[in-house]
User: What shape does this take?
Amino acid sequence: MRYLIIGAGAVGGTIGGRLFEAGHEVVLVARGSHAEALRERGLRLELPGRELELEVPVATSPQELTPRPDDVLVLAVKTQDAAAALDTWAAYGEDLPVVCAQNGVENERLALRRFRDVHGMCVWLPAEHLEPGVVRAPCAPLTGMLHVGRFPSGTDEVTRRIAADLEKSGFAAPVTDEVMAWKYAKLLANLGNAVQAVCGPAEDTAPAAQLAAAARAEGEAVLDAAGIRHIDQLEQTRVRGDRMRPQPLKGAERGGGSSWQSLARGAGSIESDYLNGEIVLLGRTTGVPTPVNEALQRTANRFARAHREPGTLTPPELAHLTALLPG
Assistant: This one.
C-alpha cells in the first residue's frame, strides 16, 4: 500500500513519518511554507529520545501524482477543511479507500458522499506542528493509539492491512466493528479543546476546569438523548493502559492540543464548529440545552477570526462563560 497523507500536520505528519520510517511507501500532501520546508529539508519528526530526518516524497495536489490501485488516502486535515480537500481529491479515484484520521464525527459522512470505501480512525495521538517541516510527537513507548474500522461500521481486509502497517510503525491500531463509538468518546474528550485554546495555561484553574466538565456533561446528556453509543471512560483507560505516556522532548516545551495550535499558528479557523458545535447541533435536534458548548463554540471562533493568541481570554470574557455554569 502507498499512503497519501492529505494534511501532513501534527497528526498526518506523525502517522506519515512513522509509516515511512518503518519502510512503507508514503507521500505527504502539504501546502505553502510547510510543503516548501518538507521538500527542501525533509520532515523532522521529533520523538522521545530521538529526532528523525525523513526524506518523504511530497505533493501539493493530486495532479502531481499518478493514481495507483494500492493507494490509501489518509485524510488528516481539520474538519473545517475536509470538504474542500475531499473535493480536490474526488477525481483521483472514488474507489480508493479513504481513512479519516481526524477529530469529530462529521468527516466520514463528508467522505462517503465522494468515495465508496470510507474508514474511520479514532486518533489518540498527542502531537504538535507549529513550524514548517517540523512535527513533534511526545508519547512513548507507543507514539499513539489509532482505532480503525469501516464507516459506518464493520471491518474488512483493507482495515486489517492498514492496522497491521500501523502496528509495525509505532502505534497501537485496534481493529473495531464500531469505530464511531470510539470517535464519539473522543468527541466528548475534545469538548475541552476550546477551553484550553482560549484559557491557555489557565486551563487547570477552577473556572476553566468547571467549564470543561460542564461542556462534557452537556455532551453526555445529548448523546444519551440521541441514543448514540460511545465507549465509556473506564474502557478507554483500560485499553490505553500506560503504553503512550507523554515524555519531554529535547529543547521544546509542550504546547497545547489541536485547537490551541490553530490559534498559535494564526490559522484563522478552528475546529470548534465540529466539536462543541456537534453537541450544539445534536442538542437542538433532541431538545437538550447546551449553553456552555454554544458559548465555547462562539468564543473559539471569535478568537480564530481575530487571530488572537491562545490563552488571552479576558476576565470579563471568562466571567461571561462561567455565568453559564449550572448551579
Remarks:
- Residues 10 and 170 are 16 Å apart (CA to CA).
- The first strand starts at residue 2 and ends at 6.
